[in-house]
Write a structure and sequence with these properties.
This is Ketosteroid isomerase homolog. The chain is of the alpha+beta class. It has three helices and six strands, in the order H-H-E-E-H-E-E-E-E. The radius of gyration is 14 Å and the shape is globular.
């Protein structure tokens, strides 16, 4: 399996772990300095985001992936994933969104880790 395919699988794992609320699984995909940028512009550290997932601030129910584009440059990579997501966040009702995630990754000790992600709609 090539590097692009491995990274595409990590994106799918990322969503599966969020739906399952698998905090340890998600943590294993993130670098120590991971940052998430929400659609609102709010920046969260991995710890803050994972706390929100654990305590029910963020609830993800499904994700269907429409497009995943990966570009690898040595030990760094970028990924743009477009997924149709059903979620309830910040106490709001369950809804459907077309979310685009723009991710950066870096290879650490032979494993790809997400270093940042930025969410928007498409």
């Amino acid at each position: 399996m090539g590097e692009e395919a491995k990274i595409s699988e990590l994106y799918k794992d990322y969503w599966d772990y969020m739906i399952e609320k698998n905090i340890e699984g998600l943590r294993s995909l993130m670098s120590a300095d991971y940052s998430l940028y929400h659609m609102t512009g709010v920046r969260q550290s991995a710890d803050d985001f994972l706390k929100g997932l654990y305590n029910g601030t963020f609830n993800y129910y499904s994700a269907e992936h429409d497009d995943i584009v990966v570009s690898v440059h040595g030990d760094e990579a970028s990924l743009t994933g477009k997924s149709r997501v059903v979620a309830a966040v910040y106490g709001g009702g369950k809804g459907s969104w077309r979310l685009q995630g723009d991710f950066t990754l870096r290879k650490e000790n032979g494993n790809w880790k997400f270093t940042s992600s930025r969410a928007s709609t498409y």
